[in-house]
């Protein structure tokens, strides 16, 4: 299908066939017979050097478990442009690193007036990245690619406005390809309501993904699979 698409495009537009893609906009692509692996190792190394963290000690998690952050935490304010540059770079890195999606999305809420606490939390993500810079996503070659989704919500996790955070991720075959973490627009009055809001957003994304897959000839015949993870199930 891809080869046919390339031939049709070359008939219509002036194009050159440069062979297999190995690098695209900071994303490294390794295509093998068994599958495709994507990562951003070089981008991560550049980011660590930019913020002078290439020799820092590593940590095993992007955030401290159970830590809460708020706009006014009493600590000294830091250079906003430097903080925004770091968070923006981390957001770009989430293109292949869903494991830092929640942490980066959370810290992006404080870009207007960041503090030492916020900057310290952002630097912890860099420490985590130094120990996991080889991480990426492996898409194994398979003829049985089922769309599977997972959804999550906390309850009143935002200290400033008591709003909850929704998250979802979707896999197709062996690798994840769609994920998000976002603060909910309304204040949920119970954990069940927060989970319903997250499930609704996940269902909307699932419907859109199924339609895209159908358009490219991969219609999902079976009902979509979706699993909800509650805050009580997490450590």
From TrEMBL:
Pfam families: RVT_2. Residues 1-64 form the Reverse transcriptase Ty1/copia-type domain. InterPro entries: RVT_2. This is Retrovirus-related Pol polyprotein from transposon RE2. It comes from Sesamum angolense. The lineage of its organism: Eukaryota, Viridiplantae, Streptophyta, Embryophyta, Tracheophyta.
């Amino acid at each position: 299908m891809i080869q046919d698409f390339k031939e049709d495009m070359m008939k219509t537009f002036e194009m050159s066939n440069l062979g297999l893609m190995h690098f695209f906009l900071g994303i490294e692509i390794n295509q093998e017979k068994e599958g495709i692996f994507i990562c951003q190792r070089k981008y991560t190394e550049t980011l660590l050097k930019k913020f002078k963290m290439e020799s820092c000690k590593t940590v095993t998690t992007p955030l401290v478990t159970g830590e809460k952050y708020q706009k006014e935490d009493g600590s000294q304010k830091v250079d906003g442009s430097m903080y925004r540059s770091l968070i923006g770079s981390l957001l770009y890195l989430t293109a292949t690193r869903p494991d830092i999606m929640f942490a980066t999305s959370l810290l992006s809420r404080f870009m207007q007036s960041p503090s030492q606490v916020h900057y310290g939390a952002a630097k912890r993500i860099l420490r985590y990245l130094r120990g996991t810079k080889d991480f990426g996503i492996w898409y194994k070659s398979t003829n049985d690619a089922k769309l599977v989704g997972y959804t999550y919500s906390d309850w009143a996790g935002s200290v400033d406005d008591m709003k909850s955070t929704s998250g979802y991720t979707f896999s197709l075959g062996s690798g994840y390809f769609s994920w998000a973490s976002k603060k909910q627009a309304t204040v949920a009055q119970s954990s069940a309501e927060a989970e319903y809001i997250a499930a609704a957003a996940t269902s909307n994304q699932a419907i859109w993904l199924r339609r895209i897959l159908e358009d490219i000839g991969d219609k999902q015949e079976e009902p979509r699979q979706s699993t909800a993870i509650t805050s009580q199930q997490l450590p």
